[in-house]
From TrEMBL:
Keywords: Leucine-rich repeat, Repeat
Protein name: LRC66 protein
Gene3D superfamilies: Ribonuclease Inhibitor
Cellular component terms per the entry's GO annotation: plasma membrane
UniProt-listed PANTHER family: ANTIGEN BSP, PUTATIVE-RELATED, INSULIN LIKE GROWTH FACTOR BINDING PROTEIN ACID LABILE SUBUNIT
The keyword Repeat appears for this protein: yes
Amino acid sequence: SECRWDGQFLLNCSFTRISTVPEDISQTAVTADLSYNNIKTFVCPDERNEQWMLKHLNLSNNKISELTLTTCTNLPILETLNLNGNAIHTLTLDMPTPAHGSKKDSVVDRLLPALKVLSVERNNLTTVPRGLGLLQSLQTVHMSSNAIQQIDPKDFQNCSQLKDIDLRNNKITKIHPDAFRDLNKLQVVVDLRENALKIPLPQILVSLNFFQLEVYLSKNAW
């Protein structure tokens, strides 16, 4: 491919018209920019491969429609994952309920343990991806410009480190009063602009520590 490699930390494959992720990505790369290409599928390295040392992975502006992150056990220090501008309608994080005696817990413990920023803006999501709470270090979630219709009480369950949620420009009509109840570290922004909210304002803010937050609610249906 026409990818550019600085010989040490940075792999730049942006605007190279590739349709698959290069198989020979150096395991010493810290940043991989695969944006603005024709990639339709992305599969994380599995247990048969050595661990990648990536901290920043940019897959924005490709043609990905479905993505499963449950196999991402060999990206132990990945901090940012940019999936903006794809066609993602299914983003799988959680796993089926395990059979008795299975090793689900050991796998979950390794699911992107260092990921801090997940950005899935300008996609086709209709719901918040289930299992965000499995990303134990997650601090920022950007999901603006999708087609999310409501926020359920379990959508952000166990997201104990979450500080910033961007849900701007979706189709949200309903937010469960307990949706943000356990997010004790929210301290930056809850952005709900440009949705279809009609419910009374107190229902949204009842479980938020309002005085430490910026909450954006303009351009709704009130």
